Here is the input.
Amino acid sequence: MQFSDDALGSMDAHDRLAVLDSEGIDLAIQFPQRAMSMSGIADRDFMFTCLNSYNEWLAHGVPRRMGAHGVPILPTVYRPQATAEYIAHLKALGFKTMMLPNYPRDVRYADAEMEPMWNAIEESGLPLNFHISEAPDDNGPGGLGTFLTVSMQPFRKLWAYLVFTGLLDRHPGLRVVFTEGGISWVPSVLEHADRVHREFADYLEPRLPTRQPLLDTQCYATFMDIRAASNRSITSGSTGACGRATIRTRGHLRRDRRRVETQPRVAGRCGSDSDHGRERAACLRIRRTMSVEVTPIARSLGAIVSGVDLRER
Amino acid sequence: MVGSVVISATSMSSSHAILDDWLPDRCHPKDRDRAPRLVGVGIALDSSAHVLRTFTLFRG
Here is the structure.
């Protein structure tokens, strides 16, 4: 066993550029990983300082090929009134997106006092990212395998919370990206959410609109391997993970089939570890009308996550 | 042109650079001792003895 920190490029930005070159990757969208754990610092003023320092490092301390497309951490969950001003700072640093912790301590995202934060995010026009946890809670026997397996199904609770609290309805301009959790969770969560909405409508608080489409498209999810989503609802096409994919909704969901092409060259493997192989990334746009569609990564990760339309490059 | 750019979603790079150098330099002097720091493959917050594990293991 070897620590991934020992791998070339894991701890040094210039080495990482060499890795990108060797693997034919032009741009890297840099996610925080360890830095996100600083959102758990108990002293909230100090937490703000640390996260802000990370964001400024990403803007100034990382080669542009990685940092310019990085994903900063919005440090205002305990200062929601300061969000608009801070997003202006992020924009001034050149960022096109941002991310939040999934479950910050002592914060419920849908509470009224958080509205200034959501108003500011929505008005900014920048997409918001959530990312799977990268902090294993147990390293004992079976711990790593258990953690990794759970990590591949992380967003059911968060997505449902954003939907059923009405937060996404109140902010139709929000675009939310669920990152590195794959897409195998999407069909099942849509199916169950649809059922809950249909069968428990009289009990839900707040009540969600009953019009169709139920809600506008606001959510996206990324995946590395379309085969991971082949269980029952999404099947990969004959040309493999980076080729065609057929998305088929099932059950009471809308019955249609969409043939989608991901771009063979507009994709890169996710992560820094070569054992990931040459898996191709793409992005699934979650239609809360209870159907799904895949968008080419040039529009998804490029235009949605980083805010940069790579087609213009 | 669509299809001409390869991008990668990535993380972890330069962890030492941010935690060992950049961040302490930008902390108020009174806070430097409690700045988050790498401990092995984890990160210690608030000068705590508790080290938060981070995902760093893979077979080499």
User: Anything to note?
Assistant: Confidence is low (pLDDT under 50) at residues 211-216, 227-285, 287-313 of chain A. The radius of gyration of chain A is 19 Å. Chain A touches chain B through 76 residues (CB under 8 Å). Chain A has two domains: 1-126, 132-313.
